[in-house]
Design a protein that fits this description.
Length: about 180
């Protein structure tokens, strides 16, 4: 089984509004391979989340307080996608206390010609949180879940039933209602 980095995860840098890591890519890959047997199902078949040691990871998720200022943008995540609305808060990234590495199978990526390699699995995202688990893995952001479910530009089909989607959306909204990404 081969695991590689998808080009999409390369947007996760220290200067980005996303979680990032300071360990080498080789160490990250080794952690994923070591913990691969602990993978949990993602939001659809062919997507898994591998929990790894959070040492060397930083989360851009921050807890909002009354009066915090939010900034927004309308931009594409990558070339060829339609722009999306995004909100960010001012603040500093925090050391992660929980990290799930999101892997997509070769077949799922092939659905939209999003493979970066020929590997069996590609790391598409590194989801780091400054807090311990919240009823399982860190919930996907509501706008991302919606884009995926309705297969909007850049979204990967969830293959959820309406009731599964509503349950996942509720979990997402309850988690993200008082949190934002650092911008």
């Amino acid at each position: 089984m081969e695991i590689a980095f998808n080009n999409f995860v390369r947007r996760q840098t220290a200067d980005s509004s996303f979680s990032h890591w300071t360990i080498s890519d080789e160490v990250l890959l080794n952690r994923v391979k070591y913990e691969f047997s602990k993978a949990k199902p993602g939001y659809r078949d062919g997507v898994i989340l591998v929990p790894v040691d959070p040492d060397g990871f930083f989360s851009s998720v921050i807890q909002l307080k009354a009066g915090d200022k939010l900034e927004g943008e309308f931009k594409a995540r990558r070339e060829g996608e339609d722009p999306r609305k995004t909100l960010h808060a001012k603040g500093n990234k925090m050391p992660a206390r929980m990290v799930d590495v999101v892997l997509y199978s070769k077949n799922v990526l092939a659905d939209n010609s999003e493979n970066s390699t020929e590997a069996d699995w590609e790391i598409v995202s590194v989801n780091a949180s400054p807090e311990e688990r919240w009823r399982g893995e860190l919930p996907i952001q509501p706008d991302t879940l919606i884009a995926n479910h309705f297969q909007l530009s850049g979204g990967t089909a969830t293959n959820m039933t309406d009731s599964e989607f509503v349950a996942a959306l509720k979990t997402s909204v309850l988690y993200w209602k008082d949190k934002a990404m650092v911008g």
